[in-house]
């Protein structure tokens, strides 16, 4: 190869390879998703994705339409991944005492105990399950964070029995008996405060690009499109090939 040709072609090819290697996309081991449905007439809705990479999980929970206030302050909604039971959301028949509300205890045979607390920051163990300082606040919010996956949570996800439950109802929407009842978990609170409002079983889906940090309640952020970056690298490589061809043609013409 002509020395000039080697000088021009090699750096350009290296640039293309650098563009390809700069892509930040790393496939997670497995992704799980769920569309959350209302329980106890909450009229709320939500979605969650959990991307697992090794022993790390990146969860993004988005909810709306929940009870907005409690005692003139933003309503603290605790939310968890439950496991170790049937892996389903409770049917209306789970209301064993007939007060018109499926309490957390009444729903437990369907979705099991807490295996991960989807807190906005800090502790994600079951011990933080009722910590209102780490709860989501108000009618609509997003929790976006990465945490270490516990063995119980990993087992529930892999078995298809992991269920996400968001708690906290508007007392005004309950029956008279429901409004008068005390929480089955914290007797100093009304039953509405700790009863399920949203529920959904996490199902395995397509593995997604992993990422994210322990940011708690998320703000909208931008990001680099890994596909576009990889495509850009491909275009650079194509340009490199084209440049080499052009140099070769010019060198051949000069020799002629």
Explain how this protein is built:
With 256 residues, the protein is an alpha+beta fold. It has 6 helices and 13 strands. It folds into 2 domains: 54 residues; 176 residues, Immunoglobulin-like, CATH 2.60.40. The longest helix is centred in the C-terminal third of the chain and has 30 residues. The chain is globular, with a radius of gyration of 26 Å. The two termini are 16 Å apart.
Note the main attributes of this structure.
Immunoglobulin-like, 26% strand, 256 residues, alpha+beta, two-stranded antiparallel ribbon, nine-stranded antiparallel sheet
CATH first level of the largest domain: which class? Mainly Beta
Residue windows where pLDDT falls under 50 for at least 5 positions? 3-26, 208-256
Q: How does the helix and strand content classify structurally?
A: alpha+beta
State the separation between the terminal residues, measured CA to CA: 16 Å
Helix content range? 25-40%
- The CATH topology of the largest domain turns out to be Immunoglobulin-like
Strand content: 25-35%
What integer is the average pLDDT?
79
The value of Rg in angstroms is 26 Å
Give the CATH architecture of the largest domain.
Sandwich
> What is the overall shape?
globular
Number of domains: 2
Total strands: the figure is: 13
Topology as H/E string? HEEEEEEEHEEEHEHHEEH
Give the biggest sheet: 9 strands, antiparallel
**So how many helices?**
6
């Amino acid at each position: 190869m002509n020395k000039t040709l080697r000088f021009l072609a090699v750096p350009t090819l290296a640039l293309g390879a650098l563009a390809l290697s700069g892509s930040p996309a790393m496939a997670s081991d497995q992704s799980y998703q769920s569309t959350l449905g209302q329980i106890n007439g909450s009229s709320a809705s939500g979605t969650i994705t959990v991307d697992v990479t090794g022993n790390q999980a990146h969860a993004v929970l988005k909810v709306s339409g929940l009870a907005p206030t409690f005692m003139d302050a933003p309503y603290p909604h605790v939310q968890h991944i439950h496991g170790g039971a049937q892996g389903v959301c409770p049917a209306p028949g789970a209301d064993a005492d007939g007060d018109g509300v499926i309490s957390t205890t009444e729903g437990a045979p369907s979705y099991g105990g807490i295996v991960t607390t989807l807190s906005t920051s800090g502790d994600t163990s079951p011990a933080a399950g009722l910590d209102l300082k780490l709860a989501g606040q108000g009618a609509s919010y997003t929790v976006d964070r990465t945490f270490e996956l516990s063995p119980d949570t990993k087992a529930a996800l892999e078995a298809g029995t992991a269920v996400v439950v968001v708690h906290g109802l508007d007392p005004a929407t309950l029956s008279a008996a429901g409004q008068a009842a005390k929480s089955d978990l914290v007797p100093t609170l009304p039953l509405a405060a700790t009863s399920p409002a949203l529920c959904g079983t996490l199902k395995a889906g397509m593995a997604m690009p992993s990422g994210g940090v322990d940011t708690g309640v998320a703000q909208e952020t931008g990001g680099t499109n890994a596909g576009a970056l990889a495509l850009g690298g491909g275009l650079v490589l194509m340009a490199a090939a084209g440049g080499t061809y052009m140099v070769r043609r010019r060198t051949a013409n000069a020799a002629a």
